[in-house]
From TrEMBL:
Region annotated Disordered, chain positions: 298-417
Record-listed ATP binding positions: 38
Descriptive protein name: non-specific serine/threonine protein kinase
Self-association state and partner proteins as the record states: Monomer.
Organism the protein comes from: Ananas comosus var. bracteatus
Low complexity bias spans: 337-357
Length: 417
């Protein structure tokens, strides 16, 4: 007899491992809809799934928050059934040869700031902001960013009085060292500013391809964290953001300023980033274009040997420039090959690079490509430009978005929830 959960979901194959449990593909018996099912042994030393389920319940209804379908105990396991989501931003970063264009980073920043702001509005800090904990949706939600993994989340104020937790020092590092704020390294109790500073490091990671404190060697985890902290403190904001729009340096200064209210930091930062996008907020991300180019190449008729070259495909040979993932103390580097996640056969496992230089895209953001209309509907419609007509390639981009769901990432078939 096939295993079932809550007498409503059919338990399928294992598709990954999270920080506190294992992830399985599930199916709603009545609707045949696919879901993600997270299992945690009830005898585990430090159970987390109940706490995480409670957090998701508190956050339910927010844009970019996965829906909880069911939570309970089945046999020896705590079980959490949730929406099935797409690849993480770390997956997509690797797919794009570990560098994202300014336009893509700004579109992501807008949504990521919104997600963090919403979590904060519910009186919680996330405390582990990193690319693995932001996933894209599927189908008509493929342009929407979701925030996941609240195992380290913590209440920072009383939900009724809004009284903040007291200032404390000598706290152990919580989260991922690569993206941790300077204050977190110094052992200071985390606040909303620290989530926002971590987001800044994530954005620079996407733009630069790496951060100055990656790849440091040390004998122990503690020594490695100390080295990361020293390098991070020694790297000025200006040095970190050199070569990129000044708004990124301003963002870090806002996060570290004690004179600005959190609401001021968020609104000022959002305004700065949106200035660059103006009418280009079309939800066409780098991976959308790469997948589209790949689909065009695969469907193109074969050329005869003497045939002249047409337009450049914009693709370079696949490169394996992936750096080692994260610090030793990261919570289970679990990621997903979305072809396995979705139960579909994936496409080519090769990763291609856009041939144009994306380091200089901010200098040509307004002229680098023709305007395209949004390929799919969005739950966050905004930044529409008046008089913009649908592109003749809209249908192609819509089919491309469906293809995004079956991307293959050259990584273990694991997902991190």
């Amino acid at each position: 007899m096939e295993p079932r959960v809550g007498n409503k979901f059919r338990l399928g194959r294992k598709i990954g491992s999270g920080s506190f449990g294992e992830i399985y593909l599930g199916t709603n018996i009545q609707t045949n809809e696919e879901v993600a099912i997270k299992l945690e042994n009830v005898k585990t030393k430090h159970p987390q799934l109940l706490y995480e389920a409670k957090l998701y319940r508190i956050l339910q209804g927010g844009t970019g928050i996965p829906n909880v379908r069911w939570f309970g105990v089945e046999g020896d396991y705590n079980v959490l059934v949730m929406d099935l989501l797409g690849p993480s931003l770390e997956d997509l970063f690797n797919f794009c040869s570990r560098k994202l264009s300014l336009k893509t980073v700004l579109m992501l920043a807008d949504q990521m700031i919104n997600r963090i702001e919403f979590v904060h509005s519910k009186s919680f800090l996330h405390r582990d902001i990193k690319p693995d904990n932001f996933l894209m949706g599927l189908g008509r939600r493929a342009n929407q960013v979701y925030i996941i993994d609240f195992g380290l989340a913590k209440k920072y104020r009383d939900t009724t009085t809004h009284q903040h937790i007291p200032y404390r020092e000598n706290k152990n590092l919580t989260g991922t060292a690569r993206y941790a704020s300077v204050n977190t390294h110094l052992g200071i109790e985390q606040s909303r500013r620290d989530d926002l500073e971590s987001l800044g490091y994530v954005l620079m990671y996407f733009l630069r391809g790496s951060l100055p404190w990656q790849g440091l060697k040390a004998g122990t985890k503690k020594q490695k964290y100390e080295k990361i902290s020293e390098r991070k403190v020694a790297t000025s904001i200006e040095a970190l953001c050199r070569g990129y729009p000044s708004e990124f340096a301003s963002y870090f200064h806002y996060c570290r300023s004690l004179r600005l209210m959190i609401s001021q930091i968020i609104h000022t930062s959002r305004d700065c980033f949106e200035t660059f996008l103006s009418a280009r907020f079309d939800y066409v991300f780098d991976w959308t274009i790469l997948k589209y180019q790949q689909s065009q190449i695969s469907s193109a008729p074969p050329r005869t040997p003497g045939q002249g070259a047409g337009q450049s495909s914009g693709l370079a040979p696949a490169v394996d420039d992936r750096q080692s993932g994260g610090e030793e103390g990261r919570k289970g580097d679990a990621v997903l090959s979305s072809s396995t996640f979705l139960g579909r056969s994936g496409g080519s496992s090769r990763r291609a690079a856009v041939s144009s230089s994306r380091d200089t895209e901010f200098a040509k953001l307004s002229t680098s490509a023709p305007q395209r209309s949004s390929p799919i509907g969005s739950a966050e419609p905004k930044h529409s430009s008046s008089g913009r007509h649908p592109s003749s390639n809209t249908k192609n981009y819509e089919s491309t978005l469906k293809g995004i769901e079956s991307l293959s990432f050259d990584k273990d078939d694991r997902i991190h929830y």
